Model the fold of this input.
Amino acid sequence: MPLTAENAAQQIQDRLKDVQRLIHQIDEERRRSEGNINSLTRAQQSNLPPSKLKSLYKSCLQDAVVEEATIRNALEKIQEIRNIRNERRIQARNAGNKEAIRRGALMKMVQISAQTLPLFVSKPGEKVPPLCGAIPAESNYIARVGDNVAALVKGVEDEENWILAEVVQFLQRQNKYDVIDIDEEQKDRHVLSKRKVIPLPLMRANPETDGHALFPKDTIVMALYPQTTCFYKAIIHKLPQSATEDYEVLFEDSSYTNGYAEPLPVAQRYVIAYKPTKKSGSSGGGSSSVSSA
Done:
């Protein structure tokens, strides 16, 4: 059943109230836990017996568990809001209500989408799921309608390039994707086989807890060149050190002596496994020149 604008607005408001309530709850829990932490600090300095210290440690640990659960609950509510807004946007597009977006605004949206991508923070012993950081999708995975993907399309003189696109639908019988170029100046539709579509990460990997879910240094990848909607061959130069940092990558560029340009920042969302094209052969995902992208 289609989600009406009124229903969507109400659902978003309800979840915003939940988020506000949870934020206050997190603040209260943090203030309360500070008392236990201060008590533990004083106890450690006073050389209390191990049994007393153990009890204080348990109290602090329980406080952390409760706070973590509340934070995760708030993040789930925020993701629900994102899903509702995305569903409304898709419905509006399907209804023919296409809003023109200027180039600068589009680039800002691409950047914000990467910055606000949910962060996966694993629990002890928890496995990092597919489409988190550098972890690829499973072979039978089908990207959802509205998801962003890298799509291999033909350009000028039949040269193939990887572009940032959005899934319109998956054609089950043909085993193909119907995607649309997110660039407002193009807005081309393409029907492509699954092998020509790469789902982008749905979550960021946390470098502090799940560094193994990031591409190692010197890995050859495809990355979205800043201020464009095209993916190009690059090498990982530096990994993000915190949840808010980007990769630093070296894009292939024949005008440089070593064949690669100076390092540029690219968000986790737009760094994917390297996959060569037919036209480019070993040179990678598209032309090494980015001026026309």
In short: Residues 218 and 236 are 5 Å apart (CA to CA). The domain at 205-273 is CATH 2.30.30.140 (SH3 type barrels.). Residues 280-284, 286-293 have pLDDT under 50 and may be disordered.
